[in-house]
């Protein structure tokens, strides 16, 4: 079963490889410029370069130590930092702004956008890079959801929230891979070519809600609120008549591929939702209650059944341990189920969960007993947000390396 859990994840990743998805949506017309940004940038670019070998390009992937990048003839590959932007992110953002501003109205700009673009393509507006780095870190640790984070980021950026589309006169075809629950294109990489419904006032409300001071950021946002700075382009703006935004892959696509895998193994497989959000701890409680209901009453599904779910959990960090939202989810799931246990896997589809090098972890029916046998106190480690330490000690981490994919969380629970 352990092998099947891993195989279902790998199968889903293979079926939703960014190059495969991108290839199906490329235009007939040769673009004047290709810009690929995000964790799947190189994979998406690979498909575009096969079709348009001579087209100039700029690619901004996540920097990876020791990685050999593909041939960059006709273009530039500018690796940058994620999840916190750095000087390389600013260099990439400026390079893109300069390149798209030189295009002409009859040119076609092909944008290949995947999750992570918010940090990788950075153009601070009204604040310094150092302040933006601190702001990003604070938002990540606050428990703010992705919509809230992006409401702030869009209003301190010259690229996000439709501003990239406003920076060029060219026609735009933007292909998006979604890493956000609900597949809202305005949220993916902070929607550089998508109308923005959030406002300076919304951004200030987020800072207030999570008690984030940042006086320089607040001063900039208040300038915008007072009409001294232009708002991000809104729905109905004429500039979007020359923009086509197209969703080409999502968390639902990933879950459906996994569902097909389990059905081929003879299991009934149910997708609960691709839109789960909230604290990983509470999502784990919900899933544990569902498992117990299935086992006790056969409701809402009779076992055996495989439960699949996605979305994007969050973790409000209070301890000093290591982990990620998927490891945290799985550890709490095991805690709530106790000795009953089950087979389960939770992982981030990009291969990197939180501040670790693991994609996620695996829970086995005997994990609780093995942990006690080793003298591990699961609850104490959870209170320190040290799910990674727990699974490392149990030898139950799932380590894949970066997958070149980014379609959000992947959870599978096998209820025998």
Automatic annotation (TrEMBL):
Keywords: Oxidoreductase
Domain (MOFRL) ranges: 305-409
Top-level taxon: Bacteria
Signal peptide range in chain numbering: none
Enzyme class: oxidoreductase
Pfam families: DUF4147, MOFRL
Family matches, as SUPFAM superfamilies: GckA/TtuD-like
Entries under Gene3D superfamilies matching the protein: Glycerate kinase, MOFRL-like N-terminal domain, MOFRL domain
Protein name: Hydroxypyruvate reductase
Source organism of this protein record: Meiothermus hypogaeus
Gene: ttuD
